[in-house]
Amino acid sequence: RVVAVLFVLFALAYAIHPITPVSMKRLQKMGSEQNVRERTPIPEYFYSTQTLDHFNHQDQRVYNQRYFKNDSFWAPEQNGPVFLQIGGEGAISSAYVIDDFEMVVYAQHHAALVVALEHRFYGKSQPFSDISTPNLQYLSSQQALADVAQFIQWMIETWEGVTENTQFSFGCSYPGNLAAWFRLKYPQHTSGSVAGSSPVHAVLDFFQYLDVVDESLSALTGIECDARISNATQQIENMLQTSSGQAQLQSDFKTCSALDNSLDISTFMSDLMGNWMGTVQYNDEQGNPIDINYLCNIMNNSSYTAYEAYVQVNDLFLSLDNSSMFIDLFLSLDNSQCLSVSYDQMIQELSIVQALPFGVGFRQWTYQTCFEFGYYQTTDSSSSAQPFGNLVPIDYYLQMCNDTFSPNGEIAMNPERNVNQTNALYGGNKPHGATKIVFVNGSIDPWHSISVTSDINDSVEAILIQGTAHCANTIPYVKGEYPPSLAVAQEQVNVIIGNW
Q1: Of 169, 173, 198, 340, which is the active-site residue?
Q2: Bridge partner list, 85
């Protein structure tokens, strides 16, 4: 059950932690094991003539783009629509078009053909033999949207039964952005879009993320857990001021290397707060056993000091890293795994130019954050607004961009300008002129703060689901496992699709 749960969560959405050695290792392990274990009743296909550069007609190069399809519900004789799941910052799989996602439930209601299209440069949709920085110039949301438009046109021209004006686009997290932006930029190719947990407003310094984490912790468990995290963080920051304190931290938190420079310290703090960020973002989805209440029960255990409880939380996640797909989590807490805190190691891993055919593409996604979106989850808000201190500033991430993609000044890096250009291109969370988009967010999810959470006009609607987290709208509702508000919201979306 837990294995299937985590496959769904990691297939759907953006890497749950900040970009650190620990988060890269966790998600690559998840992707590798999914690649081995995944059931594949539906074969993969490749669109072999996808254009490399849609904005330079002199460039005639093409590449193979992977997709999956499921026509078991489709009734073309009834003008059944096409439901297209747009891929994001990781490999897609057959799970996208079978019974793991709410989109497939909608397809059964509307007799739709279900298709999932992989994002360029992720998974097996690789235009080049490597993902070196010069090649990544062709990785952008604009190129990805043009890929979708060309793919749909190819479907219309070559697939019997697929007609114009019957396509609907779906996505969650970054793919939710793409679904919304596709309707905005290519309305002739889609009759409507469902954008789940979509952070459409690009933000360089996304300190608000931790503010929402703080609010969610307090709202769901009370102020004690939040206060004890703050207490533990303050003690850690004090210990970092002395060599003896650093040595104790290295021992208690089982770091793989010394905490002897500011970049490694920021990586260390990002790892620790990342445990909480990911838990809040995906709180209790599909029976995930590690939820907010679980962690706060550890933090609030009166037999521990706040610092000791924080160490226990870290030990829990190290055990999780050391288990096989988390199955052994409650059977044996093997704490032999060490916590990687090396900034240099992170940069080395982000600089690997061989793409993996599975899992999250960290180098590629980091490129997109540096050149389009930002989304850097910093501690730059006021200390009273969140309990994680102030040792992960925006400069840490700007340094990461430079060291990964322009270590010798080859490229004039300007992430702030890039973020502003993205918002100018798409309109941020006020996409003027948009029609037939429904934005669906969860109140617990920190990403909702940069999405669309109120109606823009009569056909651009927003649904905020109380008590749910990131991408909850994509998970089929099970009574007793999820709040009734999820079922209500999903039926709202179903009705909206029917009206479109």
Answers
A1: 173
A2: 116, 170
Nearest Cα to 499, choosing from 195, 176, 192, 197? 192
Residue (of 24, 104, 1) closest to 351 by Cα position = 24
**Residue 445 annotated among the catalytic residues of the structure:** yes
SS3 190: coil
- The pLDDT score that the predictor gives to residue 165 is 86
pLDDT, mean of residues 17-40: 54
Quickly list DSSP for 53-68: -TT-TT---EEEEEEE
Residue type, 120: R
Please give the single-letter amino acid code of residue 83: F
pLDDT for the residue 19: 65
Helix crossing, 306-322 with 223-239: angle to 10°? 90
The two structure tokens encoding residue 49: 């003539």
Annotated catalytic residue within 191, 445, 448, 485: 445
pLDDT higher than 60, residue 33? no
Residue from 238, 137, 207 nearest 396 by CA:
207
Residue for token digits 């397809």?
A: 107
- State the pTM of this model: 0.91
pLDDT value for 112: 97
Q: How far apart are the first and last CA of the chain?
A: 35
470 is catalytic: yes
CA-based nearest residue to 279, from 331, 316, 328: 316
Indicate whether 337 pLDDT > 70: yes
Token duo for residue 57: 């007609």
DSSP codes of every residue in 372-415 = IIEEE--S-S-TTT-SS-S-S-HHHHHHHHHHHH-TTS-S---H
Q: Say if residues 94 and 38 touch (Cβ distance below 8 Å).
A: yes
Q: Residues 449, 209: contact at Cβ < 8 Å?
A: yes
List C-alpha distances in Å: 271 to 200, 228, 257, 266.
26, 18, 14, 9
Residue 254 in 3-state DSSP? coil
Q: Using one digit for the tens of pLDDT, what is the confidence trace for 72-124? A: 999 999 999 999 999 999 999 999 998 778 999 999 999 999 999 999 999 99
Rounded to 5 degrees, φ, ψ at 55 are: -110, 15
Distance CA 414, CA 419 (A): 9
Q: What is the pLDDT of residues 404-459, one digit of tens each?
A: 999 999 998 999 999 999 999 999 999 988 999 999 999 999 999 999 999 999 99
Tokens of 308: 């000791």
Residues listed for the chain: 500
173 carries an active-site annotation: yes
As given in the structure block, the two tokens for residue 307 are 């610092």
pLDDT of residue 48: 98
